[in-house]
Amino acid sequence: MSVALANYIALSAVIFMIGAAGVVLRRNPLVMLMAIELMWNAANLAFVAYARASMNNAGHIFAFLVITVAAAEAAIGLAIVVIVFRRAEFVDVDEVSVLKG
Amino acid sequence: MTPYGPVAIYLAVALVASLAFCILPGLLARKKPNPVKSEAYECGVEPTSDVSGRFPVRFYLIAMLFVVFDVEAASFYPWAVQMHALKLFGLIEMVTFVVVLAIGYAYVWKRGGFQWR
Amino acid sequence: MLAQPFPLSDYAAILPLTIVATTPLMILLLDLILPKGAPRRDAAVAVGIAGLLLAAYVLVRQYLAHQFAPAFGFGFILGGFSIAFSLIVVAAAIFSLLMVLPQRDDEKVGPSCALMLWSAAGAMLMAGAGDLMTIFLGLEILSLALYCLCGMVLRASPVRLREARESALKYLILSSMASGFMLYGMALLFGATGSVNLAALQAIPAGNPVFAMGCGLFMIGVAFKLGLVPFHVWMPDVFEGAPLPVTAFMSVVTKAGMLAVFARFLYGVLGTDHQALIVPVWIVAGLSMLVGNLAALSQIDMKRLLAYSGIAQLGYIVAALAGTSTLGMRYALFYLGAYTFMNLGAFAVVALISRDQEEDSHLSAFSGLGTRHPLLAAAMAFFLLSLAGLPPTAGFIGKILILASTVAAGYQWLAWLLIAGTAISVYVYIKIVRAMYVPVDLAHIREIRPLSYAPWIAVAVCAVATIALGIYPAALHDVLPRIR
């Protein structure tokens, strides 16, 4: 029942790409945050797969660290999205445009 | 059969059963529609707006706090598993962790972060 | 064995970091206890600066003791390198804290100071990071605190509020995406070598595709955080939207932390075996010098202008590392030190003459400054000349050193780009100097009285340091340690 390492890495690469495409293509900040989460978790998957393949616990610990940091990031992200859109009636980053650039 | 065999059988049964419950009523039930039956609710008022609208902000606040404290709880598990091996060192590390969290918790509490406004 | 995995000396190695990380806890507790208003605000800033000064003292003691110790299984490497970067971070944090009081008199001073210190702690962790895990942890502590800081503007006009919150959102999304790239790069590096330790990454021979891809993604993250050219678009917007002390803080601390990581990666992992992987970095550095200065030409907002000029300045610093020579590392550190003083000096002047909540840092705030505040105008002119790289300032010496090291390393084209960038930048800075000294009708200028005169300390210290390093560069050059 073992799955080859390459399959895990391929899956994680696909997830990473989906995440990156999501950040670039979607305009809803909440969805963009979810896409970023996807990128981070793709890295997690790669870490765990490599850690299992090389019997090195560092990868597992790294993944755990990333999960913790990702939670903090998600909380802060939600908070910022809330303060940006609390007054305004839109949830679309193209309308966030006081700053040109 | 591998140790995961029963799990696979269980999953297959669950999948078939839930699909069956979704599909069978459509095939077997007799349909006699009338205007009253096809209303959204048979009593009460018609919904005035789309239900998939926006959530009030306070739900996001709850989500935020939940995410933070949820993962904080997850951080206890590795320590709990290795508690006896880590002895006093692990305890001190964990107490430090909890104290830092507690200061943050006290700050949020005192500033009204937990109020349902 | 497991009961005490690390010796106590490991904890002594991260003592300055621990001080900077625990001071905010005290600030938050004081914030809860003290009465509202001035005492609470002053206490937050005072405790923050006291903590940073204590950390600086410990760092200097560690430096004088010539401590070099890998701590926590090479997770944190204490040495001249990490101490130098940490000192720069601590100095920048002190100057930025001095700018907090004149900018805001609301209830968020305590949390702002606390977040700034945590952010500085993240940068200090990056300065000493010896493996991918500590790099990532330091980077995220640094960034997460900054996301919050960018949006922390209260009691301002609606436009100003939206500006600040937008900058927080932009920074959050773009920076997290860059972190994602970097993290995936780290995963691939881990996969290629089976270790998260930078020392182990070194052993990989050139031409390993997984390693090359990991390096590439890692470098994208680095370039983003340093604000080098194809990845610089976030910088002007975020710098303009964030509160002034935060902009000042970001302009040095994020760069110093990431530069430490980059230098350690470059010298420790890539070395001279993987030249093909790093050449794009020098191209990017060269582009940054040109694009940063060209874009700065047309800016009318001081924070935005300093953001673009910061892009160019970072280009100079990274160029110093071309050729990966020990000398180049020293020169980069020298320029980073000089940049810290001249850039934060300029920001401190801006903090004294404009206020976030009332007026943005428009260039018009500087018109007639030469007659209104001769001393302040002179200091500002001096900082700007230093940023432009004219003698007799620290910026001049720094640029000469960088030119010397890029030419010595065989990157003549980079040296030419540096000279071209400098030529353009002279126009940028002279424009402000002219605005300060051209006579204007003072009746039309709205004078803003600062809420506090604390930034004067920053202006004075930065001015003295910029002069001192310009006249007697050996003062810093002699103590610049070798990278280890």
Shape of chain A: elongated
Summarize the largest interface: chains and residue counts: A-C, 47 and 40 residues
Query: Roughly how many Å apart are the termini of chain B?
Result: 57 Å
String of helices and strands of chain B: HHHH
Computed structural class of chain B: mainly alpha
Q: Looking at CATH, which topology of chain B would you report?
A: Methane Monooxygenase Hydroxylase, Chain G, domain 1
What is the number of independent domains of chain A?
A: 1
Distance between the first and last residues' Cα of chain A: 52 Å
Number of helices of chain B: 4
The number of strands of chain A is: 0
Oligomeric category: heterotrimer
CATH first level of chain A: Mainly Alpha
CATH class division of chain B: Mainly Alpha
Strand content of chain B is under 5%
CATH architecture of chain A: Orthogonal Bundle
The ordered string of helix (H) and strand (E) elements of chain A is: HHH
* Largest beta-sheet characterization of chain B: none
Q: Please identify the structural class of chain A as seen in this structure.
A: mainly alpha
Do you know the CATH topology of chain A?
Answer: Helix Hairpins
Domain module tally of chain B: 1
Radius of gyration of chain A equals 17 Å
Identify the notable features of this structure and list them briefly.
heterotrimer, B: 117 residues, mainly alpha, Methane Monooxygenase Hydroxylase, Chain G, domain 1, 4 helices, C: 484 residues, two-stranded antiparallel sheet, 21 helices
How are the SSEs placed, and which strands pair?
The complex is a heterotrimer of chains A (101), B (117) and C (484).
Chain A: H1 5-25, H2 29-53, H3 58-85
Chain B: H1 5-28, H2 57-74, H3 76-81, H4 83-110
Chain C: H1 8-13, H2 15-33, H3 38-64, E1 69-71, E2 76-78, H4 80-98, H5 100-103, H6 109-128, H7 132-151, H8 158-193, H9 198-201, H10 209-226, H11 234-241, H12 244-270, H13 275-296, H14 302-320, H15 326-353, H16 369-372, H17 374-388, H18 394-408, H19 412-437, H20 455-471, H21 474-477
Antiparallel strand pairs in C: 1-2
